[in-house]
Amino acid sequence: MTVNYCGQGSENTMTIFFKKTIKLLSVIASFFFVLPVLADDYGLDTARSASGLPTGSGSTASDSIAMGAGNILGAVLAFLGVIFLLMMIYGGILWMTVPANEKGVKKAKSIIAAAVVGLIIVLSAFAITAFLGDTIAK
What we know:
The protein has about 140 residues and is mainly α. The protein contains four helices and no strands. The radius of gyration is 26 Å and the shape is flat.
């Protein structure tokens, strides 16, 4: 089993390559062909009404404003989470692909540090908002 530097190997090497490729493709395909989950009614509505929690009907205007603000805040946090992930990926790729100069590594580190600081600021703002919202609501 010899492999030359042109990428051409013996038939045994190619067979191993195709077996690994087929295994990888079957694992990837399994994510696309999952069976649907069948949900069932477990009596959650009955439990909610017995506990005295508000249901979806009969809500007041302040409840709908609070729900709308909560939905908007959740969407903004999800968007900022995606931005954090993209910045981390960009900084990591930049760090891995930069030549061995100090300037490129320093730039990649600063991008990653800025992403982490931004995440800390966003999570702190969310914690403060959630605390104040709970305090004001009571």
